[in-house]
Structures are given as structure tokens and as C-alpha cells.
Amino acid sequence: MKQKLFLFLCLLASVGYVQAQGLPTNPEPGKCYVKCITKDTFKEVTETLQVYPAYTTLEVVPATYKTVEETVLVKEATEKFVYTPATYETVDVSYVSKEARTDLNVIPATFGRDSRTFQTYPATSGWEYKILEDCPSVNKDDCVAACFVEYPATNRDVPFTTLATDASTSSVPVPERTATYKKRVIKTPARMDKVEIPAEYKTITRQVIDVPASTRSNTIPARTETVTRTILDQKGGITTWEEVECELLNPTVIPIFYETASARLTPASKRTIDETLLPILNDKPVNIEIMAHTDSRGNDDYNMSLSQQRANSVVNYLVSKGISRSRLSAKGYGETRLTNRCSNGVDCSEEQHRRNRRTEFRILNN
Questions:
Q1: Residue 135 needs a FRET pair 20 to 30 A away by CA distance; which of 31, 38, 125, 343 works?
Q2: Which of residues 144, 174, 204 is at a domain's end?
Q3: Domain-located, residue 86
Q4: Residues 6 or more apart in contact with residue 257 via CB below 8 angstroms
């Protein structure tokens, strides 16, 4: 009883998980399903479009000319000035080569002789004491006599020189010296004489417009073209689950083989694509990935680029058959996924290398 209850609860949990994930509700055992989101569908409509508007062309009628004569000024009247230089004559010009001056003669001073009496010592008087000779007293002071004596003044005659006349000068005039030099002076001054130069004229012929240019109009009709364009027919975005063979979810080899260093699809390769890929893409709204591979011969980077070109060739061919490019993806793997031992430097047969030059596809869950 408990085991049946456990199985019932597991079944309910499984149903709830499926509904939460949006998976198919009634899957068949052993079947595989891919989630597909329906794409936008388009249709072609035909419209007539005006590709070039009606317009008017203009044809120019050129102008016509006539010839006329005309007198034109070729050189304007002007004036010119004629210069007459000055004339000169030579004259003698006197000048003072040495100016007059006055010399001075010195008259020395004159002197006379004279004398004058000077009192060299004045008259004096006074008492004079004398010790008498033969004084009998031992005390000399007893033998002193006082006499009042007068002395006359002493005079002296002193001769001296007197100035009779002081020194002076007398003037002696010295006359100036003169000389002459030659000088060229203007006899007749320079002058400018104005001369009138008349204008010059010439008769020319020229063409003038007789009838101005004009235009003639011409109406060109509009051009139309019938254009076929693709418009959105039905918006996609609806999620569906499509049953597919399980092996198609893994890389599946398409029997498409390439010549060495080539990405060109042969007619046989195109028939293989028509028979294998187109039915799947037309029958179910699934997406597929195209995977291209090369052999190991050649440069690794070159092989990677070549494999991408090969994958692109298959995608471009499917697009030309009406498959939307949004449903297709192309991936080149170069020599990174060899199917045998024929890697760089390994001696292999052409058949072994050919197996590595393959194209695979797989269905994607989108």
C-alpha cells in the first residue's frame, strides 16, 4: 500500500515538473523532442512603383551675335615733366684765415729810495746801586751808594725802497690775415617743364548679342516598374515541441566531400543537401547547425578559415532554396576534430584524408 502511494506521488511530481517546464504532455517512449519557436512567415506582393518622376527638359537656343565697330581709348592722356638742371659759375670768396688780435707789452714797476729814523730803545731813568770800592766795612751793604741815572733814547736810521709807478701794460694791435677760395654758385636754377601727352585711340570690331539665348521645353513622362517585395504575413513566436529522430540531435555526417583547398559545392553535393536537409527543414520548424571540417594537411589557421567557408557554402545554398537564414548556423572546426589518426606529420592515404574533409549537421533546440 505504501509503495503504491509513493509511486502515485512520484507520478504527480513528474507531471507537475513537466507542466512547469513546458515539456510535451504526452511523450512517446524512445522519442526525442525539440523545442521550436515558430518564425515569422512572409509573403510576396507585387506593386507598381513610380521609379522615375515625370520631368521637363530644356533645350537651349543659343544667342546670335552681330559685329559692330567701336572707337576705344587705348592710352589715356597724361603729362610728363622735363627736368632742366641748374647752371653754375665760379667766384672767389674772401675769408679771414687768421683773425686780428691785440698783443700786450708789460711795463715793469719803478721804485725810489728813502729812509726813516726809528727809536730802537726809549729814554729811561732810575736808581742804580753801586758798591764802593775800598769799603772798609765787612758788611758790603754798608758800602752801597744809590744814584739816580737817566739814559737817553736810542734811534736808528732805516733806509727803504718806495714804489714810484706800478707795473702796467701797453697794447700792440696785430692786423688780421685774409685769403680766398673758389666757390661754384647757381647761375640759373633748375626747373621742371610740364609737357602734355595726348590720349591714343583705336577702332575695334566686336560681337554683341543680337538675339538673346532662349529655351525650348520638352516634357518627359514618368517611368514605372513592377516590384515584388516580401511582407510579414504571420507573426511567429509560438512555442511548439517537434518530434525528431534522436540521432539527429547529435552531429550527423552529410555525404558531402570537397576537393583539396576548395569550398565549392558540386552538383552531387547539392543533390545530397536536397535529399537530406531540405526535407527536415521543410517538414518541421527546427533549426540546424552546419559543421564543416578539413583534413590536417596545410596551415592550421588556413584550414580553420577554409572550414568556415565550407559551412557558409551549405548555409547559402539552403537560403537559396527558401530556408530562412535565421534557422541556420555555420561553424568551421578546421582540423580540430579529425576522425582518424591523420594529424599533422602523419603519413596517410588520400582516402583517409578525404574522410576528414566532411560536413555534419545537427538539430538545435531553440
A1: 125
A2: 174
A3: no
A4: 269, 354, 357, 358
Q: Could you tell me the residue range of the domain that residue 333 belongs to?
A: 245-364
CB contact at 8 A, 350 and 330: no
**Residues 263-276: tens digit of each pLDDT:** 888 888 899 999 98
Residue 278 belongs to some domain of the structure: yes
CA–CA separation, 45 and 24 (whole Å)? 37
Express each pLDDT in 31-78 by its tens digit: 565 555 555 566 677 888 777 888 888 888 898 998 998 898 989 889
Domain membership of residue 266 (yes or no) is: yes
E strand or H helix at 184: strand 177-188
**Spatial distance between the Cα atoms of 356 and 296, rounded to a whole number of angstroms:** 8
Task: DSSP letter for 350, please.
Answer: H
- The residue among 133, 155, 174 that closes a domain is 174
> What per-residue confidence (pLDDT) applies to 1?
44
Instruction: Specify whether the CB–CB gap between 233 and 41 falls below 8 A.
Output: yes
The total of structural domains in the chain comes to 2
- Residue 269 sits in a domain of what CATH number? 3.30.1330.60
Cα–chain center distance at 168: 96
CA atoms of 286 and 273, how far apart (whole Å): 16
**What is the rounded distance in angstroms from the CA atom of residue 242 to the CA atom of residue 24?**
9
Q: pLDDT at position 19, please?
A: 44
